[in-house]
Task: inverse folding
């Protein structure tokens, strides 16, 4: 083994504590990156394979009613490869022994000879062979312990129909199984049901007709080239506007999850990379400073500048390389665990999860980047150092009165405190970087609480301030406003507010957006719209209210006119003014006065549904009564949905918080430990001198602890600020029309972040103090002559 190799391993062993601290930060960065990248790749690859294997459609269109012969015209549209006509309807379900409201989306299966799109993957059983046999979505079946052979009761047009499960399945169309209008999945109270076409057509008077189209495009066709002619073709049949995969509900939620994983990978990896580079910079700069004589000797004995530079580069790579394999292993373990959690939300029949060679290359690239960024200047210094210059000791530090002393504040400090302040001020850049490193760790801890606090805020605002009903009733078709009185007459119902909903396309300039325009009562209390200060806004007698995010998408401000194309009933296009914008966290909405909306539609005083206030003890009886009414296709319980969501999200939030806390704690410990070791190495002569002059071990400890404690305390406020900034950046990067996460950071989150940082600092200080107590006073006081 070459002499330089002996020196390499000796130096590495002497720096083992600092190397371990650096490796911990590298492990955290690589693990976070691997966790995010492998899950992003797994979800993307699994989705692509599921879509292709089970023939997920490219374009979808909902309409009122169209005859089956229309399919021939659809097939002739340029770019269309396959077309599937279906019947899709909403029904209420009754599960034996379960008394809460359950709704289902029933989807017809293709007949023999039809194009078979959005195929079913059977987890259990078989496809239906008889009229009222059904396949049920896996999420709902698992929530209720259902298996082939079990029974359900569906209320179809007011008539009870017993259904028999022939199978349990999954579909690429419902990877994220969610009810229309919801943001949270509710596996107990919402089901996807597939059944044969003839029974469904007879029940909903759609013999020889369909109300939904799924289209698969030719390989060289784009969705937008098919959507416009398809909309024109379906317009006479009540078409509500075709759309591509980008607006398909399940696909959109999965797209948003992939976007979040990308954001997390970039943000966290960048933070850990910066901290790793800083730690390496400090350690290598200090090492080269203390080994000036060794560098001189090596060059004097014939080692070239390149060999000496390569020697220190190898040491750096060894220090960061120690963290590569553990980082990959930890990232793979966390990634697989997160993938299992994802599988509870996103229903795939399989998961293609693996650590690809690209991920290995990214991990190595992370380590090399940290090494290069952090040590380039130090390695260049070792490369350029001439033997004659290296043989001389470094010039002593220039000592002068510090800023604190010049300002007169030094008189307020005792001798020990002045020593601490002087040492920090005389190395301002290093002190600043230590503060920034610990501040980043503190910031990650602050940000880790964002998800929990923000979700609670979203629930409190959406379901405490805005939506205050207990039950939401949706009608199959708009009905007379007398329906409100009928609902109010049900025993147990305290109050009822009706609403009118119309499918619309909003346009402003070249921008457009498809949504539902909801008409609210002027004195609405169960459903309220809120301003930017989360205060209720009175619905204007005329004009529109848009969610602020939707107004941004359309580039419209209060007072502007929008083209509103109604997609149901009389399909007229009107120019309507925007009266004001409102704030919502879930989805985007458009609101107006119900009476004004009915006047615009010119089809009478109608309602599409209602919000009900019902005491908890009366809800089972009210739900049972609502099921009997044939015009009601869905009944949803707000409180039950919230409880289900909290139960579903609890493990995810806990896992994310735990991972972020461990990663941030390792970063904080790495920064503090390295700062303490460097301080001990640089001030060992001073501390030993104080011991010989009569200072007690406790007093010498106080000097070192004082410096570390000052750095830690100084890092808290910047850390809180960085946490707030990183949280704001994360919130901004995750905005979409599906949901906006509010920037909510509670004092408890800041307190927890500060406590973890202090504990990590305390642990690091304890490790360094042990080395301080073991100082050889005689050896330390030896100096070079």
Result:
């Amino acid at each position: 083994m070459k002499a330089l190799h002996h020196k390499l391993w000796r130096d590495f062993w002497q720096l083992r504590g600092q190397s371990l601290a650096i490796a911990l930060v590298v492990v955290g960065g690589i693990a976070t990156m691997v966790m995010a990248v492998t899950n992003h790749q797994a979800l993307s690859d699994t989705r692509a394979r599921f879509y292709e294997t089970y023939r997920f459609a490219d374009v979808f269109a909902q309409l009122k009613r169209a005859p089956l012969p229309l399919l021939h015209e659809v097939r002739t549209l340029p770019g269309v490869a396959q077309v599937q006509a279906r019947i899709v309807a909403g029904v209420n379900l009754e599960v034996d022994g379960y008394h809460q409201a359950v709704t289902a989306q029933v989807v017809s299966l293709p007949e023999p000879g039809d194009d078979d799109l959005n195929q079913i993957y059977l987890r259990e059983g078989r496809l239906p062979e008889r009229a009222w046999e059904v396949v049920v979505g896996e999420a709902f079946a698992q929530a209720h312990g259902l298996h082939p052979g079990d029974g359900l009761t569906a209320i179809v047009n007011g008539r009870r129909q017993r259904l028999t499960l022939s199978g349990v399945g999954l579909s690429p169309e419902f990877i994220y199984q969610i009810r229309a209008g919801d943001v949270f999945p509710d596996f107990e109270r919402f089901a996807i049901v597939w059944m044969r076409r003839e029974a469904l057509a007879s029940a909903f008077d759609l013999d020889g007709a369909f109300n939904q189209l799924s289209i698969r495009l030719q390989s060289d066709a784009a969705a937008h080239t098919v959507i416009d002619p398809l909309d024109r073709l379906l317009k006479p049949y009540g078409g509500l506007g075709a759309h591509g995969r980008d607006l398909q509900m399940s696909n959109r939620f999965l797209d948003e999850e992939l976007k979040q994983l990308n954001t997390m990978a970039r943000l966290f990896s960048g933070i850990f990379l910066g901290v790793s580079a800083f730690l390496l910079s400090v350690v290598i700069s200090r090492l080269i400073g203390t080994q000036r004589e060794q560098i001189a000797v090596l060059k004097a004995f014939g080692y070239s500048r390149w060999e000496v530079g390569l020697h220190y580069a190898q040491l750096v790579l060894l220090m960061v390389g120690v963290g590569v394999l553990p980082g990959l292993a930890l990232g793979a373990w966390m990634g697989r665990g997160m993938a299992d959690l994802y599988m509870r939300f996103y229903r795939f029949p399989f998961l293609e999860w693996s650590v690809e060679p690209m991920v290995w290359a990214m991990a190595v690239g992370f380590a090399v980047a940290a090494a290069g960024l952090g040590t380039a200047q130090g390695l260049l210094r070792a490369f350029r150092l001439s033997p004659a210059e290296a043989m001389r000791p470094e010039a002593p530090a220039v000592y002068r009165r510090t800023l604190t002393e010049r300002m007169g504040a030094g008189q307020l400090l005792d001798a020990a405190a002045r020593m601490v302040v002087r040492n920090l001020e005389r190395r301002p850049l290093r002190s600043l970087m230590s503060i920034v490193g610990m501040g980043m760790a503190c910031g990650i801890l602050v940000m880790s609480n964002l998800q929990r606090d923000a979700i609670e805020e979203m629930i409190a605002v959406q379901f405490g301030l805005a939506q205050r009903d207990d039950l939401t009733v949706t009608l199959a078709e708009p009905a007379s406003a007398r329906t409100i009185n009928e609902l109010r007459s049900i025993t147990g119902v305290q109050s009822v507010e009706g609403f009118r909903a119309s499918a619309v396309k909003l346009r402003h300039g070249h921008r457009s957006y498809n949504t539902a325009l909801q008409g609210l009562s002027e004195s609405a209390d169960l459903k309220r719209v809120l301003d930017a200060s989360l205060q209720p806004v009175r619905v204007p007698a005329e004009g529109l209210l848009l969610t602020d995010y939707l107004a941004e998408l359309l580039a419209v401000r209060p007072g502007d006119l929008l083209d509103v194309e109604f997609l149901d009933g009389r399909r007229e296009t009107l120019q309507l003014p925007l009266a004001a914008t409102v704030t919502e966290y879930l989805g985007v909405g458009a609101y107006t006065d119900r009476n004004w909306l009915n006047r615009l539609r010119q089809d009478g005083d109608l309602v599409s549904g209602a919000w009900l206030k019902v005491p908890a003890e009366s809800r089972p009886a009210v739900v049972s009564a609502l099921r009997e009414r044939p015009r009601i296709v869905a009944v949803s319980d707000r409180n039950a949905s919230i409880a289900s969501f909290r139960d579903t999200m609890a493990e995810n939030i806990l896992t994310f918080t735990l991972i972020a806390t461990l990663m941030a704690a390792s970063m904080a410990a790495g920064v503090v430990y390295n700062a303490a070791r460097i301080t001990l190495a640089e001030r060992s002569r001073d501390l030993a001198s104080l011991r010989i002059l009569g200072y007690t071990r406790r007093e010498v400890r106080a000097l070192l602890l004082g410096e570390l404690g000052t750095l830690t305390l100084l890092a808290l406020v910047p850390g809180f600020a960085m946490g707030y900034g990183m949280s704001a950046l994360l919130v901004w990067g995750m905005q979409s029309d599906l949901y906006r996460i509010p920037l909510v950071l509670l004092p408890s989150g800041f307190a927890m972040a500060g406590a973890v940082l202090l504990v990590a600092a305390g642990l690091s200080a304890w490790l360094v103090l042990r080395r301080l107590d073991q100082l050889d006073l005689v050896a330390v006081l030896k100096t070079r002559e």
